[in-house]
């Protein structure tokens, strides 16, 4: 009997983006070629405006690349999205204002034509710290709570691929730490391939198996750093020398990228 297919990895080949603009266009992502292993969690870190979201959107199939391609296993991102194998959460979560938190999360199941076991939505809402808010409408939630509802909405369909754009940007520090510990446990258990954008070096090292540090626009990879810490991360891992060394490597790569600047010369190619 053939083996069950595992979750797919992601392969980006020469993926690049240039937006139309005066003077030959604005190069936002320089040709990007990387593989993301199935089941791994990767953080994309880089200065504001460098092209992280654009890169993530291209991988999600929501932005057409100017060059190059993305393959998820042997499918295109659009094909994976069409069968609800991929979930994306944006910086500004688009929840339907007339639906409750539960209604928003349940809608993702309906759209994906999936069912969840009884209690799944409540368990997810508890996981993201929204216990007691299932019946609340988005207008009565804080920005951070809306972001967490959006994360629950992403997780409920059990996607193979999770693409998160600054998922904890508006979340308070204490909750952020809790989520940084709890969510990776969930997606590791499911074998989800996860890519997330963050501005926080600590969050990147705490959550990811690998950190890609990007340069100022146009984004190019300055460093590709494996995070060699135990999984799941032990309590207090942030206080260890190994953690501090990894965080320092990421910070140093960010500084190096900033000093070198974007490769504006590529814009002419
Ligand atoms: N649709 C678009 N048309 C033209 N320019 C765009 C478009 N989308 C993004 N840009 C430009 O591309 C650049 C990169 O934007 P992007 O949102 O990818 O950066 P980012 O690294 O995610 O930034 P931040 O960390 O601040 O969210 C910016 O200069 C932005 O103005």
Automatic annotation (TrEMBL):
- Cross-referenced PROSITE patterns: ABC_TRANSPORTER_1, ABC_TRANSPORTER_2
Q: Which CDD domains match?
A: ABC_NrtD_SsuB_transporters (cd03293)
Q: Which GO terms describe its molecular function?
A: ATP binding; ATP hydrolysis activity
Q: What highest taxon heads this organism's lineage?
A: Bacteria
**PANTHER family of this UniProt entry?**
ALIPHATIC SULFONATES IMPORT ATP-BINDING PROTEIN SSUB 2, TAURINE IMPORT ATP-BINDING PROTEIN-RELATED
Which keywords annotate this record?
ATP-binding, Nucleotide-binding, Transport
Please report the name of this protein according to its UniProt entry: ABC transporter ATP-binding protein
What the entry lists under SUPFAM superfamilies is as follows:
P-loop containing nucleoside triphosphate hydrolases (SSF52540)
| Source organism (scientific name) | Rhodosalinus sediminis
């Amino acid at each position: 009997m053939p083996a069950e297919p595992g979750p797919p990895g992601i392969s980006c080949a020469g993926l690049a983006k240039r937006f139309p603009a005066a003077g030959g266009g604005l190069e936002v992502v320089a040709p990007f070629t990387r593989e993301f292993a199935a089941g791994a969690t990767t953080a994309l870190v880089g200065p504001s405006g460098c092209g992280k979201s654009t890169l993530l959107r291209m991988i999600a199939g929501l932005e057409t690349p100017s060059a190059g391609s993305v393959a998820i296993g042997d499918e295109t991102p659009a094909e994976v999205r069409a069968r609800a194998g991929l979930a994306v959460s944006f910086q500004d979560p688009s929840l339907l204002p007339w639906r409750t938190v539960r209604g928003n999360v349940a809608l993702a199941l309906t759209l994906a034509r999936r069912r969840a076991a009884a209690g799944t939505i409540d368990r997810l809402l508890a996981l993201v710290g929204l216990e007691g808010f299932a019946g609340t409408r988005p207008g009565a939630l804080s920005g951070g709570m809306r972001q967490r509802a959006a994360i629950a909405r992403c997780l409920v369909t059990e996607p193979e691929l999770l693409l998160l754009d600054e998922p904890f940007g508006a979340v308070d520090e204490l909750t952020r730490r809790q989520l940084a510990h709890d969510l990776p446990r969930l997606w590791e258990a499911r074998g989800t391939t996860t890519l997330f954008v963050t501005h926080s070096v600590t969050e990147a090292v705490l959550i990811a198996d690998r950190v890609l540090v990007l340069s100022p626009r146009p984004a190019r990879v300055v460093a590709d750093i494996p995070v060699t810490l135990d999984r799941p991360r032990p309590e207090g891992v942030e206080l260890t020398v190994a953690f501090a060394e990894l965080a320092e490597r990421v910070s140093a790569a960010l500084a190096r990228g900033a000093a070198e600047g974007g490769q504006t010369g590529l814009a002419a190619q």
